[in-house]
Design brief:
Largest sheet: 5 strands, mixed
Number of helices: 2
Radius of gyration: 15 Å
Distance between the termini: 25 Å
Order of helices and strands: EHEEEEEHEEE
Number of strands: 9
Amino acid sequence: MKIDHIGLWVRDMDEMIRFYREYFKANAGRKYHNPAKNFTSCFIEFPSGIRIELMHNPEISHETSGLGEKHTGYIHIAISTGSEKEVDILAERLKKDHYMILDGPRRTGDGYYECVVLDPEGNRIEITA
């Protein structure tokens, strides 16, 4: 068995597609729309083959008490760049482009070299080596 994809509700699908394309080299498939359910989705695929299904429905609440807040359930995705140097380069680029860096780049207690950043909708991404 393997995980086929992870689903993520989003407010602004086009912005999220742009973000993952620009910073993480993801390719976007065709958008699917089901008017009966007021549902739109688009799969983005990373070079490794891992996919995220971006999903939108204007009736879904996206309210939280704050960006990057801690809560139970899925909390982040980790995307490996392959090297510490690439983590540093991407972290600096995201910071320059005004994305919120929550932590790092740094070496963690469990041995990862990582930086934690928020995507445009406040979801945590660990950029790892």
